[in-house]
Amino acid sequence: LPTVILVGRPNVGKSALFNRLIRRREALVYNTPDDHVTRDIREGIAKLGDLRFRVLDSAGLEMAASSGSILDRTAEMTGNVIARSQFAIFLIDVRDGLHPMDLEVGKWLRKHAPGVRTILAMNKSESLDDHRGYLTSAAGEAHKLGYGDPIAISAETGLGMVDLYESLLPLLEEYMLNAIDDKASEGSEFINAEESKLPLQLAIVGRPNVGKSTLLNALLQQDRVLVGPEVGLTRDSVRAQFQYQGRTIFLVDTAGWLQRSHQEKGPSSLSVMQSRKSLMRAHVIALVLDAEEIVNARSSMKHAEVVIARRAVEEGRSLVVIVNKMDLLRGNQKLYEKVIKAVPEEIQTVIPQVTGIPVVFVSALEGRGRTGVMRQVVSAYEKWCLRLSTARLNRWLRKVMSRHSWKDQASQPKIKYFTQVKARPPTFVAFISGKTHLSDTDIRFLTKSLKEDFDMGGIPIRIMQRCVP
Ligand code: GDP
């Protein structure tokens, strides 16, 4: 929590404001100006509208200006207390105008707390008639303290608490955002270092005979996997490792995947299980479709393919769709174009929650498309690992919120801040103020905007929400 210290000469109403902010009436409000009793620093959690902060009553520090006898102790305390505060509310008594001791306090603040951002408040303002211009002239005088325009408040009646709120809000928000950012960047440095060491795990999945093994060989550029026309020939998950542009790619072949449905239930059900496991270990899932089958079928994707694509996205994996055997369509421009158009459309229909899933058209047999496939795989992986700083996200959030028009004021979500809690896949938390919450439409809007603005197309993004008081 940010810490705000209340400062001012004796009897300006620090304790009264302290009590109002912590909403408890347990502390005494001193009335004698010459009260030289050393009071301890009091601390409480302040509530001002929806703001929460730690508040310190510096009653014990004011003696620095009024009594030499306890200076030593005060000096010691000063260091401790000021070191813990980021903000100060500097109170003056509006009835007295600018008191010489106020100037002392001002000097003291500048000396001991040069980095503390200070709000000047004229307390007891309920006692002055603003219509006669008394407050304005008092404000003019207070300006001489060098802390900008003062706000008029009354700790006793509650006058001006809205102004105090509005002065504190931007300061506290900025502080909170920086605090989160510090944490986020600490985390991301660690994770990035770890992440860069990890090889990219790629799973090639698809129904039998679509050309997974052939593609795998094309990627490996050597015949490592037995390729044949018989259905279900490559039964075991084959692992292989290769380098692509200085990056280690760990290949998980899941040839057994999806074989259960029609063919042999016996021996391959084990490999189905294994492939399912390896599927979820993969970072990027390349789903291979057969172009020739697409031409002959009513829809581009068979049920099994839809199931696997959806599962990949639900599991937060990055999905790349590969349409293989494009060489068979050579010479038939019409069919060729039909496939190129139909596949991305159908993917969008079956997985509406993730827009922009990449589709690559290749011929594994001819060894074409290795570069295209690998470029999409690496790009999908990098987007999947993306980390955005909280400061950047919140600048973005403000822009995005102003860009969008809501039906009415009430339906606009009140997002206080937005932060990425993890990558792989990118996961965000929206902190919502009060009892409001993000509707499905809001989440869709934010997801879409994130994807467009940070080029995260094709990546499953998660947005969670948390209420803050
Ligand atoms: P898997 O079961 O998915 O691993 O499929 P395979 O890689 O074993 O390939 C099945 C059959 O399709 C084999 O006869 C391959 O030669 C053939 N095939 C694979 N890729 C292509 C391609 O790009 N074009 C053509 N015309 N045939 C292919």
Automatic annotation (TrEMBL):
A GO biological process of this protein is:
ribosome biogenesis
Q: Which GO terms describe its molecular function?
A: GTP binding
Its keywords, alphabetically, are: GTP-binding, Nucleotide-binding, Repeat, Ribosome biogenesis
Where do the GTPase Der C-terminal KH-domain-like domain residues begin and end?
Answer: 387-466
Q: Which family does it belong to?
A: Belongs to the TRAFAC class TrmE-Era-EngA-EngB-Septin-like GTPase superfamily. EngA (Der) GTPase family.
Q: What is the lineage of its organism?
A: Eukaryota, Viridiplantae, Streptophyta, Embryophyta, Tracheophyta
- Protein name per the record: GTPase Der
- Which part of the chain is the G domain? 3-124, 202-325
